């Protein structure tokens, strides 16, 4: 039984390339077909290993097959969770800059900490079917205004989804282009009500941790100084 190790490793490399995650971090159906093929190969090698006078060659083939299978499986490891960021990126220089920075920062954090991060400026994706792929929703620079999108977000949160909102995502002021016309979000969920004013120019503040047991507060001291903000 002759084993072409170079050909096997080249085949493994091609399969590893095929096992890249798609943009949503989900598995390509072809990936599992490749894993099934690898498992079949290992089974065949084991059968050969049980035959007399073929032990050394079969063991070598078994090791190579295991390497191929393990490398394939490593490429399909599921992320700890999936996060989707929504943004519009259409107003105020500071907001535009923040969106660009966030969409560079979060993919790096995702790679480092083993989660999947996607972003979209299509708010029509804020629907139950699309959100079902994710465990965390992020609003980078605004909020949804369409009733169906708001209802999808409310249900996502009430079903246990996580959320992060930045700066203008919590803004509401009547009268303005963004009136306080979403009581569930601004009063019940955020508890912030309507915008009243800020400290301009940006100023730092001493923040107090009220619930040190909350996961979001992990590692923070009882009080700390925030960076300058509005």
Structural account:
The protein is built from 7 helices and 6 strands. The strands form 2 sheets. Strands 2-1-3-4 form a 4-stranded parallel β-sheet, covered by helices on one side. Strands 5-6 form a two-stranded antiparallel sheet. It is globular and about 45 Å long. The N terminus is likely disordered.
**Beta-strand segment tally:** 6
Which class of the largest domain in CATH terms? Alpha Beta
Segments where pLDDT lies below 50 for 5+ residues?
Answer: 1-35, 70-75
Q: H/E series, N to C?
A: HHHEHEHEHEHEE
Instruction: Fill in the CATH topology of the largest domain.
Output: Rossmann fold
CATH fourth-tier homologous superfamily of the largest domain: Class I glutamine amidotransferase (GATase) domain
Structural class: alpha/beta
Strand portion, in percent?
Answer: 5-15%
Overall form:
globular
Question: Strands across the major sheet, in which order?
Answer: 2-1-3-4
The CATH architecture assignment of the largest domain turns out to be: 3-Layer(aba) Sandwich
Domains counted in the coordinates: how many? 3
* Through-space gap between termini: 73 Å
Count of alpha and pi helical runs:
7
**Largest beta-sheet characterization:** 4 strands, parallel
C-alpha-based Rg, rounded: 25 Å
Look at the structure and give the mean pLDDT.
Answer: 78
* Helix coverage percent: 40-55%
